Amino acid sequence: FELETSLRGALERGEFTLFYQPIVCTRDRRVHGMEVLLRWRRPGHGLVAPDDFIPMLEENGLIVAVGEWVIRTACEQAMAWQRAGLAPVPLAVNLSARQFMHRGLIDAIRRTLDETGLAPSMLEFEITETALMQHGRQTLETLAQISNMGIRLSIDDFGTGYSSLAYLKRFPVHKIKIDRAFVRDLESSSEDRAIVAAIMALAGSLQLTVVAEGVETQAQLALLREHGCALAQGYLFAKPDEAGRAAQMLA
Ligand code: G
Ligand code: G
Ligand code: G
Ligand code: MN
Ligand code: NA
């Protein structure tokens, strides 16, 4: 109850902030993009991670307003980095199931791109496998609208949910992000290596780019590279950080 009360006014009080984590090329470690990660500076509690408040935002519907703020702030940040002369890389924004199903989403995205002037190719969305599979036809329509705008889509936490291969083929998605649960024990677990190999084969035949999440060691990186995984993200390269420090990785 106390959490919900303080969460209700957090947007108006300017307590949300965005962190950025680079997504790098596994071969040369060049920054290929940035994932945008929401944080809440809750007075008296420090920095709160999304897992501790996004479920509540989803329940009370505030996720729509907060989500629109995230998209707008990310687009403004991307434009600010471009104006500062930094190499333009796409920013990947997470969308929850409820945002994804919200009728106003497409208009909000279009308006934000118009008003900030960001090219659609510089924005991406990540949607979890579970959220994607929840709703059949409307999901396909929304994905098509986003894709037709020129915005690329990633399936987040791939491998942890239930996903129909038939849908995967029909959805206009461009990337899959291997959940970090399969990356963590890559060195010791032949099962996890087999899963990664299977995901790579699937992605190859569907022409999807693969991003490995949660890469923390050189050995994991080497294995992923051998498996043909093009992109990676994790503490080995950089932790999520505020815009100022994240920008240093673009410089
Ligand atoms: O850093 P990490 O604790 O940031 O993120 C935890 C989870 O919260 C991630 O799985 C991510 O998908 C989700 N998340 C982070 N930022 C956002 C956001 O802006 N919107 C939504 N819907 N989910 C987010
Ligand atoms: O280590 P193990 O053979 O149990 O791994 C399971 C699967 O993962 C195998 O089918 C193999 O092709 C693949 N694999 C495991 N390690 C590597 C590796 O270092 N390089 C490549 N290319 N494939 C590997
Ligand atoms: O959207 P998604 O669930 O993929 O969000 C990424 C989450 O993973 C964020 O909470 C982020 O802070 C976290 N994360 C990013 N890199 C690493 C890593 O190398 N190790 C671990 N344990 N978590 C990571
Ligand atoms: Mn994500
Ligand atoms: Na993930």
UniProtKB/TrEMBL annotation:
<protein>
    <submittedName>
        <fullName>EAL domain-containing protein</fullName>
    </submittedName>
</protein>
<feature type="domain" description="EAL">
    <location>
        <begin position="1"/>
        <end position="251"/>
    </location>
</feature>
